[in-house]
Amino acid sequence: MNTSVNLAGVQLANPVMTASGTFGSGMEYAEFVDLNRLGAVVTKGVANVAWPGNPTPRIAETYGGMINAIGLQNPGIDVFVQRDIPFLKKFDTKIIVNVCGKTAKDYIEVVERLSDEAVDMLEINISCPNVKEGGIAFGQNAASVEDITKQIKAHAKQPVIMKLSPNVTDITEMARAAESGGADVLSLINTITGMKIDVNRRTFAVANRTGGLSGPAIKPVAVRMVYQVANAVSLPIIGMGGIASAEDALEFILAGASAVSVGTANFSNPRTTVEVIDGIEKYMQAHGIDDINELIGAVR
User: Fold this and answer.
1) pTM of whole model > 0.70?
2) Given a cut of 80, is residue 133 above it in pLDDT?
3) Pick the catalytic residue: 128, 206, 233, 265?
4) What DSSP letter does each residue of 13-58 carry, written as one string?
5) Per the omega criterion (within 30 degrees of 0), is the bond before 85 cis?
6) CATH superfamily assigned to domain 5-56+72-191+214-294
7) Is residue 28 predicted with pLDDT exceeding 80?
8) Does the annotation mark 128 as catalytic?
9) pLDDT computed for residue 300 by the predictor
């Protein structure tokens, strides 16, 4: 039985990985999860300098999920290279670094710093606010998506994954723009902008007022967008958004995803990723599927 999948020439032992921002760089989870079992570890967002993030409170539980407004707090590329990469290299799993920035120059600095490091792929978070465009996210304008993709590809040594924002009118337009810019892989969806109000305190549940909604509540939207993108471009897709079980993961794979990322579920059950891997193998055995690739995009 073959569970391995290929993303732009990078062979993963299985299609299950972590979603950026929900697993750190694996250090916090290593006592609960055998990182060797994972197809890949996707790190928390890394910027060219340390980002302090947003004021607290920054997380609020919602029905069917959570809202976060962490603001991509991270210690910066220097700490990441010295601390996180050596840790991850101890394990037999692929390393995918999530890169964030506020200008094209910010992204390129990180991409260039990683060019000689032992990381397998780069995932570019284009839901970051483009400060030169008044704060609109890079991923909310097709011309911006194509431009930032082209610039990053010109400097990247590793395959580039463009992580698409769902906060757009037409996700396929953004997917095509990333493909035109030279992206190797697409990942989707990032969080959906949401808000929660504390009725007892009569104020916003997170200090930022709005935040990114994730968890089971967004899964049907995410599956729909993955299906649309799979039928609009020819790139491999990493699907995510509310995956908490093997059945959830298989929905994304059948819709056209070559791999999947588990995010919010890690907070309530740190072993979710391994349970999803085991569940996919059981499904394949039960249904006589010899190769996971037979399932990718099987629903048309």
Assistant:
1) yes
2) no
3) 128
4) SSSEEEPTTSSTTSTTTTTTS-GGGSSEEEPPPB-SS-B--PPSP-
5) no
6) Aldolase class I (3.20.20.70)
7) yes
8) yes
9) 87
